Amino acid sequence: MTTETKKVQAVERAQQLFEDRIEAVRLLADTRATVDRVRAERDERIAAVERETAAEIADAERDDSRQYQAALKAGWTTDELKKIGFTQSGKPTRTRKRAASKTAAPEAAEARRAEPVATAASGSDTVASTPSVSSQFGNHA
């Protein structure tokens, strides 16, 4: 085999490997285009459903408003309706969650900080002891 034949064969092998790599990218580009198309179709369907339901919701809200007014005409007050869960907008009343109650531990710690602590330097024979952080939280050694 001549040197020229070896060069030609090497170039042909390199071209084949390059073509295989190009084909992989070509297939990847096709699948990405499919993903983009499917997502666009999904977005179009979602938009259509939102348009349809927006009209239905508007109709239902108008009906609700009429019924609310009818309840007022029947003798109910806005406060009474609110107490049983009906606001004028037709939307359910939202209740706020209460903030978590503070535990006694921070208050006790604050009280201890406010108390004077006797030290050996002040002439007292006793030293006030304060519980360690671990004993405050139940981590006893």
Description:
65% of the residues lie in helices and 0% in strands. The protein has 141 residues and is mainly α. 0% of the residues are buried. The chain is rod-shaped, with a radius of gyration of 39 Å. The protein has a domain at 3-92. The protein has helices at 3-73, 78-83, 104-114, 133-136.
Distance between the termini: 84 Å
Report the structural category. mainly alpha
- The helix fraction, in percent, is 55-70%
Individual helix count: 4
In round numbers, the mean pLDDT is 78
Shape, principal axes of CA atoms: rod-shaped
Short description:
By secondary structure, the chain is an all-alpha fold. It has a domain at 3-92.
Brief descriptors of the model:
mainly alpha, 4 helices
Write the layout of secondary structure elements.
Blueprint: H1 3-73, H2 78-83, H3 104-114, H4 133-136
